[in-house]
Amino acid sequence: MSVPTRSVTVWITGDQCAMSNTALMAAQQDSSTVLMIESVQRGGKLKYHKKKLVLIYSIMRHFADELRQAGWNVDYYREAPDFASALEQHLQKFQPNELYLMEQTEYEQAQTLMSMLEGRAVKIFRHCNFISNRADFDNLHRAESARVTMETFYRAMRRKTGVLMDGVHPLGGAWNFDKENREAPPKNLTINSPLAFPPDRTTIEVIRMVEKHFGGHPGTTTNWRYAVTRTDALEAARDFFDSRLNNFGRYQDAMIAGEPFLNHSLLSPYINTCLLNPLELCREAENRYLLKQAPLNSVEGFIRQLIGWREFVWRVYWRLMPEYKTRNSLNATAGLPDFYYTGKTKMRCMQDALSGVLEHGYAHHIARLMLLGNFALIAGLDPLETNNWFHEMFVDGYDWVMVPNVIGMSLHADGGYVGTKPYAASANYINKMSNYCKGCPYNPKTAVEADSCPFNSLYWDFLLRHHDEFSRNQRMSMILRQLETKPLNWIQAIQSKAKSLRSGGWDI
Ligand SMILES: Cc1cc2nc3c(=O)[nH]c(=O)nc-3n(C[C@H](O)[C@H](O)[C@H](O)COP(=O)(O)OP(=O)(O)OC[C@H]3O[C@@H](n4cnc5c(N)ncnc54)[C@H](O)[C@@H]3O)c2cc1C
Ligand code: SF4
Asked: What percent of the chain has pLDDT over 70?
């Protein structure tokens, strides 16, 4: 049987599964085929958490069904060895005159796909899940080498979208309510767990497929909880707005043992695959404030994450890649401790965060930044290796968002582009913002005793190692002054304690 020639192929990759995909929207149903490929090679490029693989492949299979139901002709390749062989089969079968693709989010992936399509007529359409364009960001730079802060960019995005604006002024009289969003968690804080979605037949099939091809990858496929369709992702968003947005702001920086999600939205897996659109979420959050259903500090805090941080890191990535990913301005070279993969450590805070990562492929922002990232920063772990670990272990991990968050925000390896000051902290911060230290065998109050918290000696050792670089940074002057008052024997004890943690193979 001969297959009718269709003039356009719309190639949709796993993180672009939306009816609002701009390449799909530009195509005519009767003359186009949608191409979707599950590439086993791509799934094995890094040791991705099994739940991340299940999420992507299940979203793809559900979306392909939705497309068929909507009348699209879909050419879907299950468990293809790689993109190139499936693409070749597709091109032979359909012989399209033109290929339509929405922009890829990841630098390397974009290069790989374009080299496969070299010599063919290809149209690239702008990404449907970002609000800013290149000029929005570039025009804010006074000079090529200058940097733009997230706050400056965020205000530009508020003006551009009109979200939380009263004419040209910010609603509520201020752009940013971050100071109201740093409360330590009270003992009796009520937490409403995010809605969980049991696996359906398709997801169960995908779980079997992932176990077959990627059985040696970290994480588990049991206790499945993620949405894999837009309908369910919208339910997850509604559940967040109804039951957690109220307290999102106030306790945004808090950490509680056994509570991997707290009041965070758990929507990044859906936003990053295009099941949910960031602007629709911002509008809904704004609406909740206007209806007096949620306080402004929570609503603004949530909106800042989306049209501030998310857009900012996207723009930083595309302005500075590929060089950005290789930055290591603090010359950190230590290898990743095994406990990042096994979760086996006596440090209660790290153990708890890592168990959430191993089970769900998730930790909330403060656990990522002030525990997992902070440890890597002060221990001097290699930025690229740490970046790859984050990329592998998180269900929402993609190069474009991981690189600026890990290499930039968390490890300060970008020389201070994303953050003007390293997010380094001792046990003092963790003790204040969590309930971890009470049940921990380590003592958060001391630094050089046998049972002292490792965060303490590593923190001071980090400041000592980088004293000269940081002395040029105004924002570090207060903490460095504190260091300069310490006696020599204390400094030597700190350095020797930090050295013994390292040489002991991080058996802590
Ligand atoms: C070391 C490190 C690694 C990170 N890796 C990722 C990653 O791989 N993928 C990812 O999407 N985010 C990453 N982030 C950013 C942020 O931690 C996650 O987006 C957030 O924790 C996701 O959970 P949530 O949906 O519950 O977020 P919420 O706290 O509910 O925030 C709402 C939304 O805002 C967006 N957002 C918030 N902060 C950021 C940020 N810094 N950068 C980009 N978007 C942001 C996300 O879309 C998120 O869903 C990382 C942060 C750090 C410090
Ligand atoms: S004492 Fe140190 S290791 Fe233990 S929970 Fe507190 S900060 Fe973490």
From this structure: 99
> Are 305 and 177 within one domain?
yes
User: Rounded to the nearest whole angstrom, what is the distance from the C-alpha of residue 303 to the centroid of ligand 2?
Assistant: 31
In-domain check, residue 454: yes
The response to whether residue 339 sits with its C-beta less than 6 Å from ligand 2 reads no
Which residue, judged by its Cα, is nearest atom 20 of ligand 1? 365
pLDDT in tens, 45-89: 999 999 999 999 999 999 999 999 999 999 999 999 999 999 999
CA distance 268 to 478: 36
Residue 146 sits in the same domain as residue 121? no
Position 318 in a domain = no
Residues 425, 456: Cα–Cα separation, whole Å:
8
Q: Give residue 289 CA to ligand 1 midpoint distance, Å.
A: 22
**How many A from CA of 350 to the centre of ligand 2?**
8
Q: What is the pLDDT of residue 130?
A: 97
* 308 in contact with ligand 1, CB cutoff 6 A: no
What is the band of 182 on the pLDDT scale with cuts at 50, 70, 90?
A: confident
Pair (306, 371) in one structural domain: no
> Using H for helix, E for strand and C for coil, what is the string for 301-349?
HHHHHHHHHHHHHHHHHHHHCCHHHHCCCCCCCECCCCHHHHCCCCCHH
pLDDT in tens, 163-177: 999 999 999 999 999
pLDDT value of position 188: 85
| Res. 143: pLDDT tops 90 | no
Q: Return the residue whose CA atom lies nearest to atom 7 of ligand 2.
A: 427
What's the gap in Å between 401 CA and the centre of ligand 1? Answer: 8
Secondary structure (3-state) at 25: helix
Contact 272, 15 (CB under 8 A): yes
The 10 Å CB-count burial string (b at 16+, else e) for 63-95 is bbebbeeeebbbbbbbebeebbebbeebeeebe
**Minimal-distance CA residue to ligand 2 atom 3:** 347
- State if residue 364 touches ligand 1 by the CB under 6 angstroms criterion: yes
Question: What is the structure's pLDDT at 504?
Answer: 82
365, 378, 384, 406, best to mutate for ligand 1 pocket (most atoms within 8 Å of CB) = 365
Whether residue 469 sits in one domain with residue 343:
yes
* Same domain, yes or no: 297 and 440: no
pLDDT tens digits, residue range 231-243?
Answer: 999 999 999 999 9
Structural domain of residue 467, as residue ranges?
Answer: 339-503
Segment holding 150, helix H or strand E? helix 150-161
Does the beta carbon of 255 sit less than 6 angstroms from any atom of ligand 2? Answer: no
Indicate if 163 and 276 belong to the same structural domain: yes
Ligand 1 contacts CB of residue 312 (under 6 A):
no
